[in-house]
From TrEMBL:
SUPFAM superfamilies: alpha/beta-Hydrolases (SSF53474). InterPro entries: AB_hydrolase_fold, Peptidase_S28. GO terms for molecular function: dipeptidyl-peptidase activity; serine-type exopeptidase activity. One of its GO terms (biological process) is proteolysis. Residues 745-758 have a biased composition (Low complexity). Keywords: Glycoprotein, Hydrolase, Membrane, Protease, Signal, Transmembrane, Transmembrane helix. It comes from Besnoitia besnoiti (Apicomplexan protozoan). It comes from the Eukaryota. This is Serine carboxypeptidase s28 protein.
């Protein structure tokens, strides 16, 4: 029989039970308070438009509903246009979002005064008060896609107040712009006289059908009717005939005033269109670059005129006849930025002169777009030419030059599945051992990869070049992996057998011979020889799988071993062929950026691909004048004049939006995070696309295939552009008002009579 405790203490059972009950009650109360708080927060978020940022943004039910709403609207507009709406319907829905002042940060600041924190990323405003408007939006505003040879038409945007029956047409053109050879380059060592050359560009300009008359047509008609005088200054004969004449004159003046007001309204109905410029990179351009993709979608949202400028030396834009070393000295990003600045000045001037109003080039906003290396150019252009370029969209932009770029291979190894990565490493080690075993075995191994004629196997560097072709093909599968169209990682990994002891798809006869040899060695008791035969069969299966993967990727990229083999890039002819672009980009790597993807400890690629091998490749392909050779110093010099991440990202630059894929090997050289202070004060923003790779946000996706993270990335880009344009228009309006006020005060002061000294 248990005796009750006379006094409660820690050892008393009743006291212990009572304490556990109290703790349970406290836990239940805390849980209830948390649930009530979350319910209140959810009610607030459903009633107020919220700019959600950071990790919390991904877990809001509101965001999931917003994505579902956008997707439903996208399908509705696609059906309205016969299935061709594409992801532009999503952008039309996103255009309903307004950059209102309400934000999640403001909510916390309102109730907790001590909490002061700025958003670390560009806010994506979820305007739920427009849900009914979005659901009832006219279907006629959907984009109508036509063939490549036909102009596209769409109904004008509601904000432009079009006339009845008015439509808008996109007119695609191809043109040539004359550029100077040299914009000023410190690398030029034999500067000739300035020569001009023509650079190729593509444009998509918006033209109205059934538009309002010219801004000055009514005024000119009145002046012609009244003999060159304005209607307000005309004195009719009836004015001298008494009250009837005065009433008639008042009616005429009122009519003339109304006509002027109507003319002013018609004048302002023609919008000042922004200009979006797509920057070409290390390859030829085509009209597709302004017909589809991110820039075309953003152009439809904001009613912008589109341009795509081909990079010098690439495609058909040839400032020099060939790519010899003497002519390659003008192929630098410094010269490319000079080309871009001159072209932007030209399109701004052309837009101002062709506009109905009396505009100056400063009234035309220009935003540049680029992904990968062109994305770096876009960021540099905004930081160096802020007076002429309003903002930059830089996707997968390696703004920091790097000599030993080990982070590239580290990302490849992290993204590949572990089993696949181990097989690639093991197969690469086998290939490396075989290519250095002898000339015959090296040639046989190269032929297995389909590179027999393209990759000679005579010197040490030539054999390392084959290892580079292999590493580059595997890295491309990670860099350009994109679901659902390009599941290249899965395809590459499927080339290897799941079980190392399974039979390969090819070479079965060799395997049977190996098995017979193994059985014979086992009968003789030679276990070492039997194990060696088993290892040889495993190596054969690994090499066969790697060769299959490399040939698969070369076929997907429409390349050959010669295009990836650095030592074979000796053809100096310029043109659209891949080998020409590869040689040109190799020059830019050697002369400016580096970007040399070298191996490190436990790397996927061969350890023989090191920095010294890359430098030997540069000096072998591009022999400089006597006494000169390439070195890693060029990388430091590039980072000095470009400013790398400091200037292009979080330093003096403004109005740049960076987008990077989570699995992009180039992301370590880009701007992946922006401090809150820079985001607020400088208009900088960045976004990471979940499960994204290289330039995912710049592609055109088929209906229903665009991933939600890409949709979110495009929504953030759209939000950033809208903020830039609104700030630009507000500043120009303030400048015009200030100028008009100064002119008015000057006229009033000059017209006022002088005050008498008496």
């Amino acid at each position: 029989m248990r005796v009750p405790c006379p006094l409660p203490h820690a050892g008393c059972p009743s006291f212990e039970r009572k304490g556990s009950v109290q703790r349970s009650r406290v836990s239940l109360r805390s849980l209830l308070v948390c649930c009530l708080g979350f319910a209140c927060l959810s009610l607030f978020l459903s009633a107020v438009e919220v700019g959600a940022t950071g990790w919390f943004f991904r877990f809001l039910p509101l965001q999931r509903l917003e994505h579902a709403r956008l997707h439903a609207l996208k399908q509705q507009q696609a059906r309205a246009t016969g299935g061709g709406g594409g992801d532009r319907g999503t952008q039309a829905a996103s255009s309903l979002r307004s950059p209102g002042p309400a934000s999640l940060t403001g909510f916390f600041r309102r109730f907790v005064l001590a909490f002061q924190r700025s958003a670390s990323r560009a806010q994506v405003v979820l305007a739920w008060r427009h849900r009914s408007e979005a659901a009832g939006r006219p279907e006629g505003e959907a984009e109508e896609r036509r063939g490549a040879s036909e102009p596209r038409e769409r109904a004008p945007r509601a904000t432009e107040k079009p006339e009845a029956g008015e439509t808008e047409t996109l007119r695609f053109e191809e043109g040539w712009f004359e550029q100077p050879l040299d914009h000023g380059n410190p690398l030029v060592f034999n500067r000739p006289s300035h020569e001009a050359w023509k650079q190729k560009f593509f444009s998509a300009k918006r033209e109205r059908r059934g538009a309002a008359p010219n801004c000055y047509s009514s005024a000119a008609k009145n002046a012609e009717k009244n003999g060159g005088k304005s209607g307000k200054n005309i004195q009719s004969e009836d004015e001298k005939e008494g009250s009837a004449g005065r009433k008639r004159q008042m009616r005429e003046n009122f009519s003339a005033g109304n006509e002027k007001e109507t003319e002013k309204e018609n004048c302002h109905r023609e919008p000042i269109r922004p200009i979006f410029v797509y920057i070409g990179g290390e390859g030829p351009l085509s009209s597709t670059d302004v017909r589809e993709g991110l820039i075309a979608e953003m152009g439809d949202v904001f009613g912008a005129d589109l341009y795509a400028l081909e990079h010098r030396y690439y495609g058909a834009s040839h400032p020099r006849p060939d790519s010899t070393v003497a002519n390659l000295q003008w192929l630098t990003s410094h010269q490319a930025l000079g080309d871009l600045a001159a072209f932007v000045a030209y399109v701004k001037r052309d837009a101002a002169e062709s506009h109905a109003e009396d505009l100056s080039p400063a009234d035309i906003p220009v935003i540049v777009f680029g992904c990968s290396y062109p994305g770096s150019l876009a960021a540099y252009a905004r930081s160096k030419y802020p007076a002429s370029i309003l903002g930059a969209i830089a996707s997968s932009a390696p703004v920091q030059a790097s000599a030993a770029f080990t982070a590239f291979d580290a990302t490849v190894g992290r993204v590949l599945p572990a089993a696949c990565r181990d097989r690639v490493k093991a197969a690469t080690a086998v290939v490396q051992r075989r290519v250095f075993a002898g000339d015959a075995e090296a040639a046989e191994t190269a032929a297995k990869f389909g590179c027999g004629a393209d990759v000679p196997m005579k010197t040490h560097d030539q054999r390392v070049a084959l290892l580079y072709v292999i590493a580059d093909a595997v890295a491309e599968s990670v860099q350009y992996n994109r679901y659902p169209k390009r599941p290249w990682i899965e395809k590459v990994c499927s080339c290897f057998p799941e079980d190392a002891d399974s039979e390969p798809e090819t070479g079965a006869a060799v395997s049977r011979e190996g098995e017979e040899e193994e059985k014979e060695n086992a009968r003789r008791g030679d276990e070492a020889a039997a194990e060696e035969a088993r290892a040889a069969r495993r190596d054969d299966r690994l090499v066969d799988g790697l060769a299959k993967a490399v040939q698969l990727m070369l076929g997907e990229l429409k390349l050959t071993c010669k295009d990836s083999n650095m030592l074979q890039l000796t053809d100096t002819r310029l043109g659209p062929q891949a080998s020409s672009s590869a040689r040109l980009w190799m020059w830019q790597s050697c002369a400016e950026y580096g970007f040399w993807q070298v191996a490190f400890k436990n790397s996927v690629r061969s350890p023989l691909i090191d920095l010294k091998w890359h430098m030997r490749m540069c000096n072998a392909l591009f022999p400089l004048p006597a006494g000169s050779e390439f070195s890693t110093d060029v990388v430091s010099e590039t980072n000095v004049w470009t400013g790398d991440k400091t200037l292009a990202g979080v330093g003096a630059a403004t109005n740049i939006h960076f987008t990077n894929g989570e699995y992009d090997p180039w992301a370590p050289l880009s701007v992946t995070e922006v401090p809150p202070r820079a985001a607020v004060r400088q208009g900088l923003s960045s976004f990471i696309v979940q499960n994204g790779s290289h330039c995912n946000d710049f592609y055109a996706y088929e209906e229903g295939t665009e991933p939600l993270p890409v949709m979110e990335a495009k929504a953030r880009i759209q939000h950033a552009i809208r903020l830039w344009l609104e700030e630009f228009r507000a500043s120009r309006q303030q400048l015009r008002e200030k100028k008009a006020k100064a002119e008015t005060s000057h006229l009033s002061s000059s017209a006022a009579p002088a005050e008498s000294e008496l």
